[in-house]
Amino acid sequence: xxxxxxxxxxxxxxxxxxxxxxxxxxxKIEDYxxxxxxxxxxxxxxxxxxxxxxxxxxxxxxxxxxDTPADENLQNVNCPIPMQDRVKNHTGSQCxxxxxxxxxxxxxxxxxxxxxxxxxxxxxxxxxxxxAARVLTELNVKFEQTYRDRAAGVAMIxxxxxxxxxxxxxxxxxxxxxxxxxxxxxxxxxxxxxxYSLRIHTTTxxxxxxxxxxxILVIYAxxxxxxxxxxxxxxxxxxxxxxxxxxxxxxxxxxxxxxRRPDIFNIPE
Length: 269
Fold this sequence. Notes:
By secondary structure, this protein is of the alpha+beta class. It has a single domain, classed as Cathepsin B, Chain A (Alpha-Beta Complex), CATH 3.90.70. The chain has eight helices and six strands; from the N terminus they run αααααβαββββαβα. A six-stranded antiparallel β-sheet has the order 1-6-2-3-4-5, sandwiched between helices. The protein starts with a helix and ends in a 40-residue tail after the last helix.
């Protein structure tokens, strides 16, 4: 009896040690990406339609992170996307579309938000760079992306962060939104649409590079409001507008044009 109790105690201790080890292991959502059996036929059909070497995202289960701070300080974040602009991966397989809608909300691009991109039939399932490009082209949304060229990807990341736009990035089977990238301080920040807290995750540049595949996608709204949003103290936003020739109405935030450096705020045609 005593021997049995000792064995049970050792077994419980082993389980506890395993739990402690696993609790210290870095959580990576891509480790849990898979294709549900009921989606397999659709998935294989989509995969067969892609260019050689291109892969679809997968299904990722929803979770709620417990190690991300609830009280966020967005003041020094490259792309301070507020909580109301963040979008969940509602179906588990629309991570690309959730990421693009999030960038669209931040950019205030109505082509991506009215109706919400994630509510549209073709945007509730798996995607890839070419499939995303097809939908964005059909919607006449300005964007640029790079895939399978990490040097070009890093350059696009730095440009997007300098402009405060944010960007979609991929990890195996999943896509998220990068909102901060600072090599000098060794910090990268991102929002995972499968984390239903939608809080900001922080990692090192090396930690980001280990997980990142190669895909980067950036959205540009027709009415490019982001330079104005990131300069909230601009005098041009504070000027009262009085219409002496027509009935008074409400005016957009960027009604008074502001000068912009073309090397920073250049939008692809």
